[in-house]
Amino acid sequence: MAACPGSLILVLFFCFGLPWVKCIVEEKIALEQGENGGPGSDRANTKKHIRVDPFRCQVNPCFNGGTCRAMYPRKTLIEPYKKRFIPEYFNPSWFCVCPPRYIGFRCEQVLDPCTPNPCQNGGSCSTQGSKFSCRCRVQYTGRNCEIQNDPCVQKPCKNGGTCYSFGNKMRFCFCEPQFTGGSCEKVNCNARPCKNGGTCLNVEKRSFCKCPAGITGKLCEGEIPVITKDPQDSIRMKGDGVTLCCQATGKPAPVYEWFRNGVRLLQHIRNRNLHLSTLSSRDSGAYQCRAKNKFGATVSNEATLTVVPGNRQDSCHPTPLTRVVSLPEGCTEDSSGRNSVNVGTCSNEACVKRNQRHAGRCGGHDSNRQCCSAASMSNSRVSCKSGIKFNIQKVSKCACADCAVSKIVVRGKVVDPEGSPLWRGEMTLSTDAGKRYYTDRQGNFKILVRSGTKRIVLTVKDKFQGLLEDTTKVFELQEGQVSFYTIVLQKKPPAIKFPANKKKNIPLGGSGGKPNFVDLDIPANAFLTADGRVYNGEITASIGVIDPRSQADMTAAPGDFSAIDDNGEEVPLGSVGMLRQVFTDNSGNQLSLNKNISVRIDADQLDIPDGVTVYQWYLSKETGRWVKFGVLRPEQGGSSRLKRRSPRKFFVSEITPNVPLDNINWDYVTVVSYVRVKAPSGTVVTRIGLSDNGLQYTSYRQDTVPASGTLCILSLRDKRAILQAERDGVPLVPRQPTGFPSSVNPQIIDGSSVGNVFKIQSFRFTSTKADDRGPVYLRGEHGRCAQRGANDFAFEFRDANVGQLFHWQSIRIKDPNDIRLWQVRPDEICFVKALVVGSKPDSVIYVKSFGKAPGLSNVDYGYTAEKSATVGGQGVVCLEYRCNEGSSGQYQTHLQFLTLTGSCTVQGLNSVLNGAQNQCTVPPASSSSQERNFCVPHLVGGDAGLYSGDTAGIVQQKYIEVNMATGLGVSPTQEHHRLFPENIELNVGGKYYSTTVLTLTREPETLLGRMFSGRQKVNKDNSGKYFIDRDGSLFRYILDFLRTKQLHLPEEFGEIERLKTEAEFFEMDDLEQQLEQYSKRRERAATVVSEQFGYITLHIRGTYAFGRTGQADVTFRKLQRIEVSGRVSLCREVFGETLNETRDSNPEGNRYTNRFYLKHNHIERAFKRLKDSDFDLVSSSGGKSGLSADSTKSDEDKWDHFSIHVFVRR
């Protein structure tokens, strides 16, 4: 059976023990012999049969480096391999595997190394024994001519440059006019290449375009898309159609994509509008558009499309909702005999009638939209025991009808980190940049926003005092809301001064005694002046850091910690710090950057998740979102500056000149989730992100609860967070969560609300989804989150119960050696009681304690704030204050009362307390309608509204319900004009005026409002007129403004600055704002008038020839070009479409240019245009020159003429 007896046992084992192995071995032999050029292949054309022992491979029988392989005797092949050619006589026990270019049973035959030709790209092959060599064409090199020798192949020319090759690896880049350099890598500032207001800087062998905010690209040619028109919420009947509209700016023009519930519908369509016809219920959902170009992408706000099912002609349900009212005591409804009556109501929700809204128009809010309103009413008779009878109206049917669209009211307060209000803080909206809003003396503001607005970007500046940092805040709005936001501005850091010609290292961070966590390395000569020169004087740097280890810093952070990713989708960010920086010269002029600033963040000081990539972002003040511009690189190593010996992890990067310096953020991108919150409509919910160790704050977001009472606020998936809620500036109470998934781990904690004067309770939880009941949902589940079923979970906030008193207070000093010691009397606590009357008795009242003494500085003891409880129909609250030291003490306690919520006014002191004000050793500060200052006399008793005891809770409970007639009076509505006659006679600086007390108190917070409401003393002259020692002539405008609320000034009014001074004296903030706007309008008008006048110069060049009669017979042959010089705006106005601007790459309107020319060569036409535009010719000059002495040229080519004509419009 076998070729060699010595292998009999092994062969029998394979044949009889494992027959299937025999087939595999024979199959492998056949394949290897056929594929490796062995005797069984078509290439082995020999019939030599050599019997070799299978162990003969121990002595290699193969030539030329062949490999010997042993095998077993040949058996009959199985059917699938019979088609392979294997000679019948073949029966060896080994075979050779030959190297390339060798064949034969023992690799004894040599193939031609040039067959096939190994030389590529047209190279010729020559044989050298068993080897070959290639002779390559001139453009190629390498052993096989595989390398192209053309230096232009690698495309070395950048920015659209064209490469030309000269052989010997020499090449030349022909650059576009805007670029220069050996590889067209630098911007050519001489060509004025920067577009869209960019500035070309050429510093230290570098040149680049510095672009304004929102502009990008090497030449500032690109503009990241910005949504200018969001799709609006729409309601449609089933079967109708709708058009959702979206609009964005951008360069190049963006393309649009549409999404429903996060899923793409249409992509890359130039038409920005989405039209849906024959709507069904599955078309309902949240729609967004995305605008995208090569420089970036952005998304619109969501628009909710509601498709009302059924065959009704009206989406409003006709059956009224239940609304039960209680009739006056002793009165009943005749038909039911009850005191409580269901009068019914309609939902007032937006609605639509079938086919009423045109499908081709943009759906959404109109100036007069439709709401579900009462369609029919019925009268019901009411009888009272007193014999009085009257009718009440009851809603019997609801229908869709027109209703007014109210604006969204955004209210709030701007404070510094200590809670002190910002007076005259300037506020602007990104959507209405030309309008300014200002805070009043209490830091309050009120902004009316157009209905349908879902997101505003608000920038706040401390322009009056300049002590606080600017900030940009983002607020998510809800239809019909009245929201109250507290905005905290950081204090400006101390100035850092250093010479510009030396490098500077600045360590930052370390708030609250914590170690520094970031270093800035500023190179020498890194800043430019406004005209592009390198600045080498002294630099004043104002550099502030948002430390993520400080909740106060995070609360004051700008933006809302969200960005738009490369796909145009909103993503939440987790922060590791922010940087605010401004660099000025020794004259206060702001400098720009021309070199990179190195950033080095000590990761050991921060809790940064493993595996994340930290990016650098700058804040877009147009969109309120962060824009990515760089990445921080991880780095290991020590740092001598930070004085640590052990190796640590850093993140390093650079801030480049093209990035706005004022707000830099270091963030990592996280995964979005949504958290369901239930609270009263208008509640402002704050979500603060926590790091994994709970010691660092990573993000901050505020949203407002809509009318449904359910809010889905964006959060960071699987991360810990805190939830807080306030309404009208008053904290709401978390409701104890029950039955929540264990992975959410909800807890109620106490924590401080930065910038506010009270403690606030919060939820702390983990944003992990457990099941479909919530309260946490993932991306794409926002719609499910907004729907709350009976068994779904939500974090709930509610108002305080009637008997529950909040207690917010400052830190109490307990050091007996400290002059600010709070409990100055052992075991004694002092309280003052305040009464609140009016429509909203449950208000938050705040009292601050000061120590005053003659000739000494005031001492700030601290504050207390509480929400009043309703007792007997009015509000009452007892507030702790710092007791007096006693008759032997040096300081006397003074109190400052404020009302923090609603529109309450401080009515006055009770008679006992008011009469004791003559005991003040130092006069109290001035008061207003919402602020009352007074000293605490050395008496304690209920008649004065002052109490004391040894336990706070007992004192409060004891006195809160007794003696309701005493206390400090607080009232939302008080008619102070009853203290004065209806008609008022005034003597203002010798000028007499007659007006009414109602006019003078129309603005109660002004000086006049306080004077004529009895809150501030006003004197009389000898004739009995009320005397005010101010400019009597200008007072007419003050009085006129109080009467009409409008500013009316003469056309040539020249005392605007003096009138501003008067408005400031009378504390008329609204008038000050209107005067400021009036001044700006006049400045703009003066600028427009000045721009209407100026000079235009025409440069005319042409050729001419002499006639036969010589000089007297000159013939003008051609006009080559009419060039135009002057201010760009004037040139455009006069010559319009006939002006060719192609030679000027940056034709801004206020610039001057000499690179324009006309598209025609008609002198008379140009002169007529100037004459029609009221220009006069004031100067002309001209000349001639010979171009060539070549006799072969015609006269026309030998001579030219030129002339210059100057025109002016005065």
In whole angstroms, the N-to-C terminal distance is: 122 Å
In what range is the share of β-strand residues? 35-45%
Largest sheet: 7 strands, antiparallel
Mean pLDDT: 76
Query: Low-confidence parts, pLDDT < 50 over ≥5 residues?
Result: 1-55, 74-90, 639-645, 752-758, 802-806, 950-966, 970-978, 1108-1113, 1188-1193
Q: State the share of residues found in helices, binned by percent.
A: 10-25%
Description:
The protein is mainly beta and about 1200 residues long. Among the domains are: about 60-110, Laminin; about 115-150, Laminin, CATH 2.10.25; about 160-215, no CATH class; about 220-310, Immunoglobulin-like; about 325-355 and about 370-405, no CATH class; about 665-785 and about 790-800; about 830-855 and about 860-885, no CATH class; about 985-1085, Potassium Channel Kv1.1, Chain A, CATH 3.30.710.10. Strands 38, 42, 43, 44, 47, 48 and 51 form a 7-stranded antiparallel sheet that branches. A hairpin with a 2-residue loop joins strand 74 and strand 75 (about 990-995). The N terminus is likely disordered.
